[in-house]
Amino acid sequence: MEYDVAFVRSIRGMLKVGELVTVFVALVCFATTSGSSYIAASCMELLMTAALLTLYILKLNKRFTFFFWPLIDVFNSIFAAAFMFIISTIAISHPTAKGILGGGIVGLLATGLWCGDAVLLFRKITFNQARTASPPEK
Amino acid sequence: MGQSLRWLLWYAAVVGSTVNTQQTEDTHLPEITDQRFISQCADAHNKYRSNVMPTASNMFYMTWDEALAITARAWARHCQFSHNPRLKTPREVHPTFNSVGENIWRGSTFTVEAAMKLWHDEVADYNHDSNNCRTNRQCGHYKQVVWATSYKVGCAVHACPDGVNNRRALFVCNYGDAGNYVGFHPFKTGQSCSECGGGTCQNKLCRDAERDKLKRYDWAPDWDPEAGTSDAYYLAVLITRPLSVLLMFIGVYGLQILYPNLFAYE
């Protein structure tokens, strides 16, 4: 088994680790009081991002080329950012407990990291030309 | 490959189990709608109230109140071992009582009896003649339990995090009307039920059909940590997010067909 430890030291790798850390802190904040949906949401984001990071570190993205992983990653970051943004704004606008407010603020931080991750990776993707636009082959 | 898959599964199991243990721990503790829990709480209070020494002439029989229990649950969910700061704010803690009393117990193995006994045992530090607690001792919990004009009680217990792995139960009881007014005795001394002001007498406690009636409320305090995070909301999160992952994979697969020359620079 080969490990791509260098990925963790790249900017995108550090972003992923940052996302993991912030969403974990948010999860702990939410868990101090019991907002079960906040806990469920942050737990799922933690799981998804951890799965992607594992995929890169274990170089599984090179092994399973059935899916174009960079785009999966971009979409996941967008969904994660959108979800976390909604949940954090709800948490901050209804701060029923200190833990919920703290979790919301840290959640917004995580949202920023996901946005950065998505933009950074999307700029590296080229679509080349669409099949419909390509000239007929002979 | 097999090893990495196992690693992934193991990881999922570890992260997943933190959520699961929390749910199983919670199921050990009774809900506020649990009839056994309700009668345990009310009976324990009435037992101590009817056995006060000296005998009380105006001790009300205590009955369960749904709204007080909802308030107690909302405060227990904050997991703070201190009093709710809203106890004296009208309409923040109860739809009809303007101010409510509160007792809190914290411990690792919860039973209603254990918590109630701890509160009642403060009687040893209370002097009924002078209406004072012994210096540096607490007796406020005891006074609230036997406060004659508190005729409604609502309790809730919640599992709260304590350190990394442990969870401790936080047990909160709220009382209406509020007790523990400074300078007042918890009850009037005299022959049992001699100053009930109408109603009947049962077990040295004053009963009144209207007062003891169980009321139904549509009450939810807006400072409840789980307010707005109802089951529907919880389900929506649990369904939409995995659904978005599925859509994401289908979408990317579609894009790959549409743009076969997709490429990402390292």
Which key features would you list for this structure?
heterodimer, A: 138 residues, mainly alpha, elongated, B: 266 residues, alpha+beta, four-stranded mixed β-sheet, two-stranded antiparallel sheet
Element-level helix/strand string of chain B: HHEHEHEEHEEEEHHE
Residue runs with pLDDT of under 50 for 5 or more positions of chain B: 1-27
How would you spell out the order of helices and strands of chain A?
A: HHHHHHE
Give the oligomeric state of the chains in this entry, treating copies of one chain as homo and distinct chains as hetero.
heterodimer
Report Rg of chain B. Answer: 26 Å
Q: What portion of residues of chain A is helical?
A: over 70%
Backbone shape of chain B: elongated
Query: Could you tell me which chain pair has the largest interface and how many residues each side has?
Result: A-B, 50 and 50 residues
Structural class of chain A: mainly alpha
Largest sheet descriptor of chain A: none
Largest sheet data of chain B: 4 strands, mixed
Q: Give the tally of β-strands of chain B.
A: 9
- Binned strand content of chain A: under 5%
Query: Percent of residues of chain B in helical segments?
Result: 25-40%
Mean pLDDT rating of chain B: 86
Number of domains of chain A: 1
Provide the structure class of chain B. Answer: alpha+beta
Average predicted confidence as pLDDT of chain A: 87
Lateral strand order in the biggest sheet of chain B: 1-5-6-2
Can you count the beta strands of chain A?
A: 1
